[in-house]
Amino acid sequence: MTSQDKSSTNRIGRIVAVTGAHAVILIDGGSDAEMRVKTPEIGTLLKVDTPRTISLCIVSALSSPMPSHMPDEPETRIIEVEFLGELPKDERGAPMHFRRGVSCYPSLGDAVFRASKHELEKAYAYHTDTAIRVGHISQDEAIPAMVKIDDLLGKHFAILGTTGTGKSCTVALILRRILERNPQGHVLLLDVHREYAHAFKDIAEVISPANMNLPFWLLNFEEIVEILIGQQPNRETDVEVLRELIPIAKLRYLNNQRRERPALQRTREQIEPSSIGVDTPVPYRSSDLIGILDEHMGKLELRGELAPYKRLKARLEAINRDSRYAFMFGSLTVQDTMSQVLARLFRIPVNGKPIAILELGGLPSEIINVVVSVLARLAFDFGVWSAGRVPITFVCEEAHRYVPVDRTLGFEPTKRSISRIAKEGRKYGISLCIVSQRPAELDATILSQCNTIFSMRLANERDQAILRAGISDAASSLLDFMPTMGTGEAISFGEGVALPTRIKFDTLPADEWPMSNTASVTGSWAREMPEEGFLQDIVLRWRAQSFAPEGSVFDVPQQATFGQQPNQPAPTPDLTAPLRRLSASPAPKPANGEERQSLASLIRQIRS
Ligand SMILES: Nc1ncnc2c1ncn2[C@@H]1O[C@H](COP(=O)(O)OP(=O)(O)OP(=O)(O)O)[C@@H](O)[C@H]1O
Ligand SMILES: [Mg+2]
Question: Does residue 373 line the site of ligand 1, with CB under 6 A?
Fold first, then answer.
């Protein structure tokens, strides 16, 4: 077949109307069967040859204004397209790299063809050092779907989809591929459901409340107010007292340090007392704060005036005793560990672990709110004070919880910290990855700052409408597929990808899945559960606020509903770790295969 023959089989029709980037194409006439072959799907990439370029357009609508009544009766079919980009031709007329925008507009009567494989490759598959493959495009399995790392992480991106559509797997897939290419990356991932340690294993620093140290003095005033005062009535007096006393406690700590370590005065660590404010991240002791409260109470006489001091003191003492806050208030000695905290969170140096996973599961929501606020703020401030020299990606799962559209919900400082990254983070190298099941419940400004979006299946109309509102016609016609897409499929659009398109993500091997526990109810209900000691162990962990290690007895990985999964054996969980932590007894030899013992017998073994 000559190239002329090939292109004529790919011919679809001719342009009969053009307005801006929008054009109408009349499909060439023919038999019913021929018309069927010629009619493309929504989202198909078509091309128009112009003297200096190949203009590329995406099918956004199909219609038959005069439908035939009989099978062989001729029918008029038209398609609407949006021009999105072009492949400039070299001097020999061969297409070069894809670029957005159209410099040479097609005209009336121009012939329209399906894009060839080579042109699809040029348009979608960026084979450069700074692009990674995440899957393939739906139009042709052989064409990889590529993501441009700099465009994706230089700004912000979102992964949206109903529960179970594969958001977490997509996060794991994209981050893994990026970090394989950039092992010196810096990613901080907020893991509310404790699912990602399994996905990243040895390249992740897993930080949980049990091994975390986020000293309370790193909190800004709003955050400490939330913890110590909360939303109680008459909070204003308490807030004012705290505002007055915190700088005093900070100065007291500073003066003590200077007395104990006079050398400090001559070092770069020297902090000018005059620069200490209520938000300055310098250490102070909660015992000093209690002492100062006592001193003030000693000077006051009126009962009413004493009340806020008493409340604050009682709350501080209670929090110091509360094991859930141990990672903030638990340290007996207060030292200036700010650099160490930043080093661990933001992976500086990377030390082979470019991603820090912050496991927040099990913490009460008010603590999660404060922790998320502190981390987002630290990330932003770090970007500002380091002048963006270390780009950091901040991954926020369940983002609608922290930045809800409803202004009466959520925690103000958290909303502010995340919004600040969304609006200004780019200038300081801080990018956001927003993951959410409910785009309609997510603050619209956050979503509008996301320059790349992967939208997986979304059945809810409000969620679809939110996405449709902010995007071009071509991509919005693709969004019609949203309710019907399969697991692991997405419509991708924005700067991180070449063109808006429907893609199928690559299959993640089972040992790299997040342990999201897509429960097989029938599987669980077919087994006799629970074993002896099951409930006692749950109660033990619950009270000790200590989780099972990743992959507990309940987290049996499921056979994926997604593509073909390699036949991976379920990872053998180390069932004894939480008990070891509690009893500090030596680790028994890891169980494997048939030797795996029930949790109950292990508990007995360790106790004896
Ligand atoms: N790229 C993929 N490779 C392999 N399996 C996948 C992939 N995407 C999705 N799956 C399958 O889909 C299941 C659900 O995926 P995932 O946990 O990522 O969904 P989710 O959207 O994060 O759900 P939720 O909103 O409840 O957190 C996985 O357990 C896995 O079986
Ligand atoms: Mg998930």
Answer: no
Q: Are 294 and 313 in contact (CB under 8 A)?
A: yes
Tokens, residue 90: 């070299």
Instruction: Say how far residue 138 (Cα) sits from the centre of its chain.
Output: 24
Residue 76: name the closest of 64, 59, 86, 84 by CA. 64
Closest CA to 383 of 340, 435, 436, 432: 432
Look at residue 134 and tell me whether its pLDDT is greater than 90: yes
Look-up: residue for tokens 């005033």? 221
CB of 517 closer than 6 angstroms to any ligand 1 atom = no
pLDDT higher than threshold 90 for residue 133: yes
Cα(401)–Cα(523) distance, rounded to whole angstroms?
A: 31
Question: What are the tokens at 545?
Answer: 């606020």
Report DSSP letters for 9-55, one per residue.
HHEEEEEEEEETTEEEEEEPP--HHHHHHHPPPTT-EEEEE-SSEEE
Helices H / strands E in the chain, number of each: 22, 18
Beta carbons within 10 angstroms of residue 234's beta carbon: 11
CA 571 to ligand 1 centroid distance, Å: 18
Helix (H, G, I), strand (E, B) or coil at 59: strand
Taking the C-alpha atoms of residue 183 and residue 354, their distance in angstroms, rounded to an integer, is: 6
Q: Which residues contact 457 (CB under 8 A, 6 or more apart)?
A: 161, 162, 165, 482, 483, 484, 485, 486, 487, 489
Of 342, 335, 352, 413, nearest to 384 (Cα)?
342
- Rounded Cα distance, 360 and 190, in Å: 7
Distance CA 355, CA 101 (A): 36
pLDDT (tens digit per residue) in 28-54: 987 777 888 888 888 899 999 999 999
Confidence of residue 546 (pLDDT cuts 50, 70, 90): low
Nearest to 358 by CA among 196, 122, 577, 176: 196
Residue position matching structure tokens 């209520």: 278
Structure-token match 């072959």, residue found: 37
Looking at the DSSP assignment, which residues form a beta bridge with residue 505? 135
CB of 196 sitting under 6 A from ligand 1: no
- In the structure encoding, which two tokens stand for residue 558, read together? 């499921």
> What distance in Å separates the CA atoms of residue 543 and residue 70, rounded to the nearest whole number?
74
Q: Model confidence over 417-448: pLDDT tens digits?
A: 999 999 999 999 999 999 999 999 999 889 99
Residue type, 141: E
Alpha-carbon span 135 to 507, nearest angstrom: 8
- Give the whole-angstrom CA distance, residue 210 versus residue 191: 15
Task: Extract the tokens encoding 606.
Answer: 């360790």
Closest-CA residue to 166 (of 489, 394, 556): 489
Task: Supply the mean pLDDT for the chain.
Answer: 82
Torsion region of 304: left, alpha or beta (phi above 0 gives left; psi -120 to 50 gives alpha): alpha
Tell me, using a 6 A CB cutoff, whether residue 247 lines ligand 1. no
**Which of 133, 169, 520 has most ligand 1 atoms within 8 Å of its beta carbon, as the pocket-test mutant?**
169
Residue of the nearest CA to atom 31 in ligand 1? 560
The alpha carbon dihedral of 487, 491, 495, 498 has a sign of positive
State the first-to-last Cα distance of the chain, in angstroms, to the nearest integer. 81
Mind listing the pLDDT tens digit for each residue in 144-200? 999 999 999 999 999 999 999 999 999 999 999 999 999 999 999 999 888 999 999
User: Is 54 in contact with 119 (CB distance < 8 Å)?
Assistant: yes
Determine whether the shortest distance from the Cβ of 488 to ligand 1 is under 6 A: yes
